[in-house]
């Protein structure tokens, strides 16, 4: 239950699904593993007074556990009684006491704001100048491919259900957000055979209070556009229409802090190489009443050439930073989805990075053909 805070995406895939089998309640684990105890020791050494714990309560006891946390001077960050889950800030000197509480089923530390690579994230050696990176994929078929179908008992399952082809199956994936621009992630079919967006939900669950990675933007500033123009931070902008908008700047430097968890954009979301004198900021405009967001992806201070986007859950669609060069082996563009938190007055730009999340998607959609490609 280690909670390196990541992101959440629910994806609708054309895939085969293994039927869940009833499982007994796992045994109670009211203790911390060695790595978590080490994190506690490091927190003490840093002089921290509290840590974030993620907890599973005994069935039906989430409310009692929440009361116990607050009774020890803790504060609840997130509570979901349906699955007996809590995330809470707990005084460091009360952690061991809470771990032993009879209403705890299992508990762990939520590690945030720093890498969990335990020394493996040091600077990588520089590649020789003649090394091609990323490697060019060969056309030679893969041999001795591993297929998980046997381990999943999926071969027999497919034989029992020959007409089931994955239509209408929804898979929830809790991981880093996958690269939504891949052609394999564009469309699926519902039970009626109609094409639908393959990605049903594209949401991050980062809590800015404990891990502000720059994706969530506090839309505190207001501007009023008259005759399609307004001024913000001493710069003139062209608005998509007249009216009152919330506005802020998206900083590509801050927005790449997820790179500590295994992938990085080199602080360059539009893949322009950050030439001298270039800006690292992108203006973001929000019509709160209409629920529409514009991102100045080309940094020309003109929103009329940008597509109005809504919260992906209500209005599926993605934006793009950068322009791809088809003659290179990598894509010089990065996609993003919009997420709106009206209650907090925030907008998130959820970046689709070629990350572990993209790799996990391959477990569902990877080709089992001779080419062995992601299909």
Number of helices: 5
Strand content: 25-35%
> What's the overall average pLDDT, rounded?
83
Number of strands: 19
H/E element order? EHEHEEHEHEEEEEEEEEEEEEEH
Strand order of the largest sheet: 3-4-2-5
Shape by Cα distribution? globular
Which ranges are low-confidence, i.e. pLDDT below 50, for 5 or more consecutive residues? 1-8, 12-23, 115-124
Q: Major sheet: size, sense and barrel closure?
A: 4 strands, antiparallel
Helix content: 10-25%
Give the end-to-end Cα distance, rounded to a whole number of Å. Answer: 31 Å
Rg, rounded, reads 23 Å
Q: Structural class given helices, strands, pairing?
A: alpha+beta
Topology:
Elements: E1 7-12, H1 34-45, E2 50-57, H2 62-71, E3 75-80, E4 85-91, H3 95-99, E5 104-109, H4 154-160, E6 170-175, E7 187-189, E8 195-197, E9 199-204, E10 216-218, E11 221-225, E12 229-232, E13 235-238, E14 243-251, E15 281-287, E16 292-295, E17 319-321, E18 334-341, E19 346-352, H5 356-365
Notable features of this structure?
28% strand, 4-stranded antiparallel β-sheet, Alpha-Beta Plaits, 375 residues, alpha+beta
What can you see in these coordinates?
Helices cover 12% and strands 28% of the residues. It is globular. By secondary structure, the protein is α+β, with helices and mostly antiparallel strands. Among the domains are: 92 residues, Alpha-Beta Plaits, CATH 3.30.70.2980; 137 residues, no CATH class.
């Amino acid at each position: 239950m280690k909670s390196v805070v990541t992101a959440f995406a629910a994806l609708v895939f054309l895939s085969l699904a293994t039927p869940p089998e009833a499982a007994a309640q796992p045994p109670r684990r009211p203790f911390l593993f060695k790595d978590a105890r080490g994190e506690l020791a490091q927190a003490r050494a840093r002089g921290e007074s509290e840590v974030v714990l993620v907890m599973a309560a005994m069935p039906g006891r989430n409310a009692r556990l929440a009361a116990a946390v607050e009774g020890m001077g803790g504060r609840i960050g997130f509570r979901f009684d349906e699955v007996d889950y809590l995330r809470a800030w707990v005084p460091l000197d009360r952690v061991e006491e809470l771990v032993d509480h009879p209403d705890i089923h299992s508990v762990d530390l939520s590690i945030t704001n720093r890498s969990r690579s335990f020394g493996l994230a040091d600077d990588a050696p520089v590649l020789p100048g003649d090394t091609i990176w990323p490697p060019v994929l060969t056309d030679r078929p893969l041999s001795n491919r591993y297929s998980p179908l046997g381990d999943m008992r999926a071969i027999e399952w497919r034989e029992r259900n020959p007409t089931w082809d994955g239509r209408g199956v929804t898979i929830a994936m809790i991981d880093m957000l996958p690269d939504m621009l891949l052609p394999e992630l564009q469309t699926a079919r519902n039970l009626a055979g109609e094409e639908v967006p393959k990605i049903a939900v594209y949401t991050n669950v980062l809590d800015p209070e404990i891990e502000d990675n720059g994706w969530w933007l506090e839309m505190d500033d207001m501007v009023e556009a008259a005759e399609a123009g307004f001024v913000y931070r001493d710069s003139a902008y062209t608005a998509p229409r007249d009216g009152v908008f919330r506005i802020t700047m998206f900083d590509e430097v801050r927005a790449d802090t997820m790179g500590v968890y295994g992938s990085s954009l080199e602080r360059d979301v539009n893949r322009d190489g950050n030439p001298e004198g270039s800006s690292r900021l992108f203006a973001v405009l929000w019509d709160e009443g209409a629920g529409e967001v514009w991102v100045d992806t080309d940094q020309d201070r003109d929103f009329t050439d940008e597509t109005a986007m809504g919260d992906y859950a209500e209005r599926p669609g993605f934006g793009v930073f950068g322009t791809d060069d088809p003659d290179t082996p990598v894509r010089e563009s990065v996609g993003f989805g919009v997420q709106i938190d009206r209650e907090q007055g925030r907008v998130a730009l959820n970046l689709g990075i070629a990350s572990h999340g993209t790799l996990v998607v391959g477990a569902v959609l990877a080709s089992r053909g001779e080419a062995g490609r992601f299909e």
